[in-house]
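Write out the 3D structure for:
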Amino acid sequence: MSSWIRFLLSLLLLMPAMRGVTEDVLSGPVAADVIDVVDGDTLTVRAQIWLGQQLETRVRLAGVDTPELRARCSQELALAGQATDAVAAMVAGRRVLLRNVHYGTYAGRVVAEVEVDGRDVATVLIESGLGAAYDGRGDRPDWCL
């Protein structure tokens, strides 16, 4: 991600005039179009951050961990493909809403609750068995069991 885009994201998250911004959290909702589904728990989106201004960034789904495409076993790889496909089907051609947007562990990516058609994407993944509840701390699930 370019430094210009990171700067715009920083500005968005820090603007004191924006209602709902506290302690580097943008409560939202922020409308966004999905450009790409990276994997089961990461999207690339284009969000309108104010009139005439859009930002493209990666968003990690808050509250969920999904199997990795860089899998350690064939079972994890199969589940990762299913999770990615499920998210792609959920968001295809739809606008998503981002809520509680904040910086993630990795530079250039934010973490947010992602809603599509009134459904929380993380919750759908967890309920379908393609994701596990994860708060960003501790061990992630072992998908190879």
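The longest strand covers residues 30-39.
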